[in-house]
Specification:
The complex is a heterodimer of chains A (145) and B (107).
Chain A lengths: L4 H18 L5 H25 L4 H24 L7 H22 L5 H27 L4
Helix pairs in contact in A: 2-3, 2-4, 2-5, 4-5
Chain B lengths: L16 H11 L4 E2 H8 L3 H13 L3 E8 L2 E8 L1 H18 L10
Antiparallel strand pairs in B: 1-3, 2-3
Classes of the chains: A mainly alpha (145), B alpha+beta (107).
Amino acid sequence: MNLSPANARELLDRAESTTRGAAHFSFAWLCYIALCSGGAVAAVGLAYANVTGASPLPAWLAAGLWITVGVAFIAGATSLSPPTRRGFNSRWTLFIILWVALWSVVSFLNSHFTLGHGTALAAGFMVLAVLGPLWEIIALRRVAK
Amino acid sequence: MTVSHPRTQLNPAFQNPLRFSLMATLAGVTDITFRQARDYLQTTDSTLSKHASALEELGLVQVKKSFVGKRPLTRLALTKEGGQAWREHLAALRAIAEGPGVFPADE
């Protein structure tokens, strides 16, 4: 295979544009945002219930609704999504682990929550909801050399 | 010391334009369905099938077949060896693109 430097550059450009255009944003991240919304609602709602002595049931119901919607649509969103950028599975797994960690704190320690704890945890869920999709967008813009 | 010309590092398996484009596509995705790849590369089922099979035989591409309900679903992905071979191919192209160097092995 004899190639001139110009031919080689042309092939490199074609490879880069083909690689860059092949992957798209996964709809699964919308489900992740729903999961994080549920986590934030639970964190603040349960903290409020704990501080005021009100029933925690509304907080559980509201959070459960968001989480149910998120979980219910993950499979569909994944199968309907266009091809995802290489490394998606690792990014997704990491952010699910982080969500489970925060959710465990909310689920098991909420009887000790102050409003400050609830707000801090809700902010944590919000950070995850932003960072996950943001990392995906950055990965989409980058093409491995 | 003998330094070979970078063109000798080019992988002949990627000489065909469609195979080159298929490898470039797979290098950027986790995996891709056969239909998505066909549409993205603007080719036909038979042409894509032929070249994907050739790359699969070389161990560079993994072809995963499954069913969604009663419909068959074929997914294509790069193997570890395929990823390595593609990176080496791109490195050789970059070396050529950087311009003429001194390659004593060619003399």
